[in-house]
Design a protein that fits this description.
Structural class: mainly alpha
Number of strands: 0
CATH class: Alpha Beta
GO molecular function: DNA binding
Shape: globular
Radius of gyration: 12 Å
Pfam families: GerE
Number of domains: 1
CATH superfamily: Response regulator
Oligomer: single chain
Number of helices: 5
Strand content: under 5%
Distance between the termini: 26 Å
CATH architecture: 3-Layer(aba) Sandwich
């Protein structure tokens, strides 16, 4: 599957994320660390890690040596944004 097809497929699964998972995904995409996300959302860092694991499993996105979680999060959210959204 091509990268574009992967992100299109992942965006179709975004509605499967709950509100908290979507918040974490957005913060990952913005470049926040696990500890920063934990502090901002009043969660323990291991909880954030569990959420990230669940998010990427739900979206069926697997980090590779060339694509890390942050890149995958950004690309998925960009793919889901309405046209003309920065």
């Amino acid at each position: 599957m091509s990268l574009d097809a992967t992100y299109v497929a992942a965006t179709t699964r975004l509605p499967l994320l709950d509100r908290r998972e979507r918040e974490v995904l957005q913060l990952v995409a913005l470049g926040h660390s696990r500890n920063q996300i934990a502090a901002r959302l009043y969660l323990a860092p291991p909880t954030v890690e569990e959420l990230c694991t669940r998010i990427f499993a739900t979206l069926e996105l697997t980090p590779t040596p060339h694509l890390d979680r942050r890149v995958l999060a950004v690309l998925t959210l960009l793919q889901s944004a309405p046209p003309g959204t920065p």
